[in-house]
Every structure is written in C-alpha cells, then in structure tokens.
Design a protein that fits this description.
Helices cover about 35% and strands about 15% of the residues. The chain is of the alpha+beta class and about 200 residues long. The strands form two sheets. The protein has a five-stranded antiparallel beta sheet with strand order 1-2-3-4-5. A two-stranded antiparallel ribbon has the order 6-7. The chain starts with a helix and ends with a strand. The C terminus is likely disordered.
C-alpha cells in the first residue's frame, strides 16, 4: 500500500508543484501530511487479493459536484495552505488500487493514463510523472518515511521533514488533458534498487 500511496502523492504534488504561491517547504509539508492521511484513509479498505474492492472509497475525485477531496483539503489545511492555492484541475480522478495507480483528467471524455504499475513484481515497475527527470528516488524515500512515521505523527509529535531537491516541472499538461505512455524498459536497471522505477523519464505523445 505504501508504494501505491507514494506514487499517488508524488503525482498530485507534481500537479501543484509549479504554483508560484507555494514554496518548497510548504510543498514538502503537504506531501508528508497527504501521505499520512491517505495511509489512514485506506488502512481498512485495502484488499490485495481483490484490487477492485473498496475502489470507490480509495478514489480521489474532483469534479463539478465534488470540488474538494477531503484528504487533500485536510493536508492543505495542516500545511498552512489554502485549498485554492493548490490550483488542481477541475476534473480529476485518481484510482489508488493494489499494484496500480491510474488517473483520468476530465469526466465523460477524459484522458486516462496509468500513473504507476507494480503488477510485474520485477524491475520493470514504473511510474509516469508530469515532470522533468530528477532525483525522484529521494522524493519517494521521503514520502515513505512519512508513511512509516504516521504512527508517531498521530501521537501528536511532529513529522520528520527532509529538504529535497525537488524543483518544479517545466511543462504543465495542456488543459490537463494529455496522456502519457509507459517508458521503454531498460536492461541496465538494477534489481537491487527498489525505487528504480521512479527514475525513468516520461514519454510524451
């Protein structure tokens, strides 16, 4: 579950990362808070043997009827941010399921893409980012630390924060409607690097 949540959090953070109203500290705090909140939200609704069970509860959805996701809204509040400053797309759906994270921009004729897939169980796992290729492994490890520290955070203690080199992406989706394809597999990928899939560049079409 932690891998899938980490992928979802990074994906969301990349959507809002170029917002000039947010500084790097606020973005890091938001990622940490959101990771913990999603972990708590999914804890009793995660069924690896039945990936689609509980999917509606785990779905992060924004549209004209539900303009705010409660977990994102609370993470923003805990980070000292206004929800409006996140500038998320008006129609966005993210499915966080066992072994796969997918998203759709738009509702009825939206663009669908896979954010991350862990189904192969091998070194071919990957993630797609709306970002230039950077030190994404450090970003994932940071979020994983927040998930592991969630129990400590729930006891009223501060969540550890780490400064990361996670500068904002250069290109935003055109009207949040572009799709991305899976990067080409590389035989040189090390199987010892658990988060190697984070480093793969995005392929745009």
């Amino acid at each position: 579950m932690k891998d899938e949540i980490a992928a979802a959090v990074i994906f969301i953070s990349r959507l809002i990362g170029k917002n000039e109203n947010l500084n790097s500290e606020q973005l890091e705090e938001f990622k940490a808070r959101l990771a913990v909140l999603l972990c708590q939200r999914f804890e009793n609704h995660w069924f690896p043997e039945q990936p689609f069970k509980g999917q509606g509860y785990r779905c992060i959805r924004l549209n004209e009827w539900d303009r705010r996701d409660p977990s994102i809204e609370l993470a923003a509040e805990q980070s000292g941010l206004r929800y409006e400053d996140l500038r998320l797309p008006p129609e966005l759906t993210i499915w966080v399921d066992p072994l796969e994270v997918c998203c759709r921009f738009g509702e009825h004729r939206g663009s669908y893409c896979t954010v991350a897939s862990f189904k192969s169980g091998s070194s071919d796992d990957y993630i797609n980012f709306i970002a230039e290729d950077q030190d994404k492994q450090a970003t994932v490890e940071f979020i994983m630390r927040q998930l592991c520290a969630s129990e400590e955070g729930n006891n009223g203690q501060s969540v550890h924060r780490t400064n990361l080199n996670t500068s904002s992406y250069e290109q935003m989706l055109t009207k949040f409607g572009a799709c991305f394809n899976r990067p080409q597999q590389s035989n040189s990928t090390s199987r010892n690097d658990r988060y190697h899939w984070v480093k793969k560049p995005i392929v745009q079409t």
